[in-house]
Amino acid sequence: MIDPRRFLPLLAGVGLFVAVHQVLDAVPLLAQADLATPTGRVRLVTILWSRSAVLLVADIFLIAAAIGLGHRWFQAGLSRIHLAGGVLLLLAVPILLVSAGGMVSSVGGAGIGMFRVTMARALFGLGVTGCGALVGWRALSGGTGRAVGG
């Protein structure tokens, strides 16, 4: 059997490494983003969304380690990150919807179907992930902003 005293810090370390790696990969994308145009906003969101699966796995690693280790400061920090992330993701939904609506007339022919599917997936993913982040915040903090348990 794996000793949790050794496994959980390793799990936290891997989760932190992957999360930092993904954030550092996103920084150049944010610097190059053209947020003044609908096309730039849609492009940025879809590129960032395509990288989100790895970040979600890192998040699960970090949550499991925080709960398993029982560190209140770790849980409190994660709860605040989840609150901020959830709010940002849910705010991105109407922004993406308006931006995609502004672009739809420029997408023509056979590409319109793929554009609609891509936007539907991105909007659904942002909404579900944003709600999931708020559920994570609530679970980690009890909705108070302070860690529960321990």
Structure, described:
With 150 residues, this protein is mainly alpha-helical. It has helices spanning 4-32, 38-50, 52-69, 72-103, 111-141. Helix 2 packs across helix 4. The longest helix has 32 residues, at 72-103. The protein is elongated and about 60 Å long. The two termini are 24 Å apart. The mean pLDDT is 85.
What is the element layout, followed by pairings?
Elements: H1 4-32, H2 38-50, H3 52-69, H4 72-103, H5 111-141
- Overall pLDDT metric: 85
Which ranges are low-confidence, i.e. pLDDT below 50, for 5 or more consecutive residues?
none
Distance between the termini: 24 Å
Principal-axis shape equals elongated
Helicity range? over 70%
| Approximate strand percentage | under 5%
Main attributes?
5 helices; elongated; 150 residues
